[in-house]
Specification:
Number of strands of chain A: 14
Structural class of chain A: alpha/beta
Shape of chain B: globular
Mean pLDDT of chain B: 86
Low-confidence stretches of chain A: none
Subcellular location (chain A): Cell membrane
Radius of gyration of chain A: 24 Å
Strand order of the largest sheet of chain A: 6-7-8-3-9-10
CATH class of the largest domain in chain A: Alpha Beta
Keywords (chain A): ATP-binding, Cell membrane, Membrane, Nucleotide-binding, Translocase, Transport
Order of helices and strands of chain B: HHHHHHHHHHHH
Strand content of chain A: 25-35%
Radius of gyration of chain B: 19 Å
Distance between the termini of chain A: 64 Å
Largest interface: A-B, 40 and 29 residues
Oligomer: heterodimer
Helix content of chain A: 25-40%
Family (chain A): Belongs to the ABC transporter superfamily. Drug exporter-1 (DrugE1) (TC 3.A.1.105) family.
GO molecular function, one term (chain A): ATP binding
Structural class of chain B: mainly alpha
CATH superfamily of the largest domain in chain A: P-loop containing nucleotide triphosphate hydrolases
CATH topology of the largest domain in chain A: Rossmann fold
Largest sheet of chain A: 6 strands, mixed
Helix content of chain B: over 70%
Number of helices of chain A: 10
GO cellular component, one term (chain A): plasma membrane
Order of helices and strands of chain A: EEEHEEHEHHHEHEHEEHEEEHEH
Number of strands of chain B: 0
Number of domains of chain B: 1
Chain lengths: 331, 255
């Protein structure tokens, strides 16, 4: 039976290629605003079912990238494909399979939560029965069902953001684009959104999110890309990125009383930089052993006591700071 | 996944215009102040002109209907996009599977229907209080449909300026719309205008609406009917094309 296999076009099974696993493919994407180069030939691929974090300082090109990927802006050069659909050539086709939460957006405040989500369903042409069923499910999931008939002008920022996310899921999209989804939200809403993103990933959905919250990216992203001045400066898993920056280890120490003058820190050998974080002192070093010995000597000499002392590996934030700083120094 | 067929996307996107129209109607048009303004404004304007003077129904009724068509069809259109920009709902709308063409068409359709419905009121007032009879019913229907489309397209074109503030859009809208009512043969019929007045009147779409109304109701028009209709079609295409071009141009500034 297996001797003669049918070709895919005649109903035969098609082999899964590497390309089939790709949800977002960006090649040579370039965008100018007048003379200002906002995106400089960026390339990356996002696999299906991944949560992809797109990080970068303000004005680095994150929102421009997301706006091109969501079919709002047209690139000057390069190509962006969503599930194999060229966004520039077929924006409507690509928009059908994506849900989008822009960075600064709002719901219609004259409409109720229910009317807003139903309107979103109509904009995506979800059939009436399905639309109402999904709207109800989503409002329940986002804990908004009790206030569904209230005008959204009365809702808190967290509730509105949850509603916007619910609206972006009304057509059960394959890919979700989120531009700073948890920015300025209360802890409860942030946790709820993160949990739902994890659930969506388990269902095989692809999530592309930009965030300023490096810890958030570290916690939920499978892969991250760091963009700076329109160029991708790093692209890997959070753990691999951190391990590539092992030199950036740090020691966090707090004393029973903080010394008023901490210039002595600069005399400790192998200290790259230091930071005062509230009642703690963080020292960045490639050699924690020497630094700990020096700190012990200092406490004995000045009759101080350690309240806490811990060594920390490089955080994703350190990687981010290092990469964006290095780039700026070179420029 | 392959790129979808352009035709299927076109109809898919076009059906989105109806959703936009419904959204505009619910959020912007079906509001008591908007409806009251739509009914009362042309009425008061004309009464201010007619009170204390002997003005025939030949001037009054077509004037009232044409002003109503003009002001209601183009009343809310200039404000929709600036409102959406200020309220931060515009970018999310652009991410839905609706083309810019369909978005503008939806906005224009909302103004079109609102204009026709409200303008029926002064028309019926004319029938009731001034004993006006319709001389050419098809011409009247065609005129109302075309004029409403033309003026709602003008409204949408005015909404596409780069400004985010609705108050600025309102200023621009008033600046464009108000002078037109004085040069369009509403208060003084075209054949009574001096030559320079007749020349200026040709640049206003409202001239052709008023002229066609006088023909439809009193069988007395200044221009040939086909010219009135043709000019309204030309102005409609011009305003809609302008709206599309300006919206595209100002898209980056708008988001």
């Amino acid at each position: 039976m297996d001797k003669y296999k049918l070709a895919p076009e005649f109903g035969g099974e098609r082999k899964t290629t590497q390309e089939d696993k790709i949800a977002i493919k960006v090649s040579g994407l370039t965008k100018y605003y007048g003379d200002f180069l906002a995106l400089d030939r960026i390339n990356f691929k996002v696999e299906k079912g991944q949560i992809f974090g797109f990080l970068g300082p303000n004005g680095a090109g994150k929102t421009t990238t997301i706006r091109i990927l969501t079919g709002i802006l047209i690139p000057d050069k390069g190509k962006a494909e969503i599930m194999g659909i060229d966004v520039t050539k077929d924006p409507i086709g690509a928009k059908k399979i994506m849900g989008v939460v822009p960075e600064v957006c709002n719901v219609y405040t004259d409409l109720s939560a229910w009317e807003n989500i139903i309107l979103a369903g109509k904009l995506y042409r979800v059939r009436k029965g399905e639309r109402q069923k999904r709207a109800k499910q989503l409002l329940q999931k986002f804990n908004l069902i009790k206030i569904k008939d209230e005008k959204t002008k009365k809702l808190s920022k967290g509730m509105r953001q949850r509603l916007i996310l619910a609206m972006s899921l009304i057509h059960d999209p394959e890919i979700l684009f989120l531009d700073e989804p948890t920015s300025g939200l209360d802890v409860k809403s942030t946790h709820m959104i993160r949990k739902i993103l994890q659930e969506l990933k388990l269902k095989g959905k692809t999530i592309f999110l930009t965030t300023h919250n490096i810890e958030e990216a570290n916690l939920i992203c499978d892969k991250v890309a760091i963009i700076n001045r329109g160029k991708i400066v790093a692209f890997d898993t959070p753990e691999r990125l951190k391990s590539a920056f092992k030199r950036t280890q740090s020691i966090e120490v707090s004393f029973d009383r903080m010394p008023s003058d901490i210039k002595w820190v600069e005399d400790i050998p192998h200290i790259d930089r230091y930071q005062i974080l509230g009642d703690k002192l963080r020292l960045y070093t490639p050699d924690p052993d020497i630094v700990i010995r020096e700190l012990t000597k200092y406490t004995e000499k000045n009759k101080l006591r350690f309240v806490s002392l811990s060594t920390l590996g490089p955080s994703l934030e350190d990687v981010f700071v290092k990469l964006t700083e290095e780039k700026e120094t070179k420029l | 996944m392959k790129n979808s067929h352009p035709f299927s996307n076109f109809f898919y996107s076009l059906s989105g215009s109806l959703v936009i129209m419904e959204k505009d109607a619910r959020i912007y048009y079906i509001k008591p102040p908007v409806i009251i303004f739509g009914i009362l404004f042309p009425l008061f304007f004309l009464l201010a002109f007619a009170l204390g003077r002997k003005v025939s129904s030949f001037i009054l009724v077509p004037g009232m209907v044409s002003m109503s068509l003009f002001f209601t069809s183009s009343s809310v259109g200039p404000l929709i996009t600036p409102w959406e920009r200020t309220a931060r709902t515009y970018e999310r709308l652009l991410t839905t599977p609706i083309s810019l063409f369909s978005l503008i068409l939806g906005d224009a359709m909302a103004g079109f229907i609102f204009g026709i419905l409200i303008s029926l009121i002064p028309l019926f007032l004319g029938f009731t209080f001034f004993n006006v009879k319709v001389a050419h019913p098809f011409c009247l229907i065609g005129n109302m449909l075309l004029s409403s489309l033309c003026f709602s397209s003008l409204g949408v074109a005015l909404s596409s300026s780069a400004t985010e503030a609705p108050s600025q859009a309102m200023m621009l809208s008033s600046l464009v719309r108000f002078p037109l009512i004085f040069i369009s043969g509403i208060f003084i019929p075209l054949n009574n205008l001096p030559n320079w007045g007749k020349i200026i009147a040709t640049i206003s779409p409202l001239t052709y609406t008023t002229d066609l109304l006088r023909f439809s109701l009193y069988d007395d028009g200044f221009y040939p009917i086909f010219l009135d209709l043709l000019m309204l079609v030309i102005f409609s295409i011009l305003f809609f094309g302008l709206a599309l071009k300006l919206h595209k141009k100002n898209l980056i500034k708008a988001i």
